[in-house]
């Protein structure tokens, strides 16, 4: 599927043409990277489906960056450092630039 496997996948359930659930199932056939679901959907059924088909964690929208980064660190730690990543000193999202206050993996 990809030339290089990602360190971590953030996946929403509502993707338009397909669902995040279906994409997770396909990704799990070929990849071992941790998958964190991030969604506005908050029913227990959605959370249970996400975790039972291969998701490693589930975060409700809206969420804070500090909580998301804590979950990313915890999931990467559970994977035994196999998928550790270094946080850049400056994060850029379109026209927004900020310094990284929290390491992605510690």
From TrEMBL:
UniProt xrefs under Pfam families: Response_reg (PF00072)
GO terms classed as biological process: regulation of DNA-templated transcription
Protein name: Response regulatory domain-containing protein
Key words, A-Z: DNA-binding, Phosphoprotein, Transcription, Transcription regulation, Two-component regulatory system
GO molecular function: phosphorelay response regulator activity; transcription cis-regulatory region binding
Superkingdom classification of source: Bacteria
Residue intervals of the Response regulatory domain: 1-76
Transmembrane segment boundaries: none
